[in-house]
Amino acid sequence: MSKVFASWTYLGSNPELATAKTMVAQNSETFTDTLHHMSNQIDNLHAGTVQDIKKNVLDFNSKVTQLDSLNKQIFNMTSQGQAPNDLLDQQDKILSELSGIAGVEATYDKFNRVSVSIGGQPVLTEKSIAELSVAKDPVGQLTVNDKTVDITSGTIKGSQEALVEIDVKKQDLNELAYTFATAVNKVHSDGGKGTDFFDLSETVDGNYAASIQVNKEILNDVSKINAGKNIETVVGGDGTRAQAIAALQNTKLDYSTNPLELKYNETTMTIDNQPGGSTVAGAYNDSVTQMGIVKQQSDNMVDSQGSLVSLLEARRDSVSGVSINEEVTNTITYQSAFEANSRIISVVSEMLDTLINRTGV
């Protein structure tokens, strides 16, 4: 952006130089290529996140199927009066993994069979099993039996929240591209009377960052760049319009979903500052700063939740886990008892030997 504005400033000072116009065209084309690259990166990140959700859903359904199989085995053993301890351990392990993928609710019957529901929708009961699916619209939304499911935790929830942030950043970039191009076009075409500098005609679904182009007519003939005030007749040494476009870097514009109409002054070739607006560089920096804040908040949340999880795991292990210190202590106790019993048996054996074999009885 700095190079684009710098090239307009240079053209304003040297309007008679063809190389100055070439510099404007080339720097602007580099700028649009950069926007295309950033837009593609965002799209790839979005697609990758959706793919992560789909993989986690497949993993979730696989684990539910495993639980269903365990339920049948646990029922058979329990109904015969046996204790399926190993199977129950496997059941707990899979439930823990399911909770890590997407927050689930679990209930047990008298045979220790588990029923699982997610977002209020049952996915596993004593008699049925349902699959978790990913909806196409809105992207990343979960469904069970075509019913929308909202979750509050798990890896999938994290990916869903990431999709929201990705969409926000994409919208920011599209609004930046649209507003910037529209402002430059307003000044360059003198309010629509002449040729637009940027071409947004190929935009689909508001994806301006991916489609913005420098007007092909200008790329083919840089002399069509309007540097002077009179766009119909070129006046030698007049670079006031180029200077006006360069001055847009200090103009405060509205970068929103429904931007305010740009008010263009034909006499001064300027666009009025908009209420609550910011400069082009300011809008981009704000977007980057907001992303940094979101990341910092996420990092802090990971740290705090990680400590909480560690605490809960320690408490769980203290109840259901094995204490190495306790086992070593018990081993020493049993070993001492065994040695004492062995000593008693040895003494009794010696006493009987003496009594029977050495007393002459």
CA-based gyration radius: 37 Å
Kindly state the percentage of residues in helix. Answer: 55-70%
Low-confidence stretches: none
**What is the β-strand count?**
10
State the strand order across the main sheet. Answer: 1-2-3
Give the overall shape: elongated
Mean pLDDT: 92
How do the helices and strands follow one another from N- to C-terminus? HHHEEEEEEHEHEHHEEHH
Portion in strands? 5-15%
**Main β sheet profile:** 3 strands, antiparallel
Distance between the termini: 116 Å
**In DSSP terms, counting alpha (H) and pi (I) runs of 4 or more, how many helices?**
9
Q: Helix/strand-derived class?
A: mainly alpha
Note the topology:
Blueprint: H1 2-13, H2 18-79, H3 85-101, E1 105-108, E2 114-118, E3 121-124, E4 132-134, E5 142-144, E6 147-149, H4 155-188, E7 198-199, H5 208-211, E8 213-214, H6 216-220, H7 240-246, E9 264-265, E10 270-271, H8 280-320, H9 324-357
Antiparallel strand pairs: 1-2, 2-3, 4-5, 5-6, 7-8, 9-10
Helix pairs in contact: 1-2, 1-7, 2-3, 2-4, 4-7, 4-8
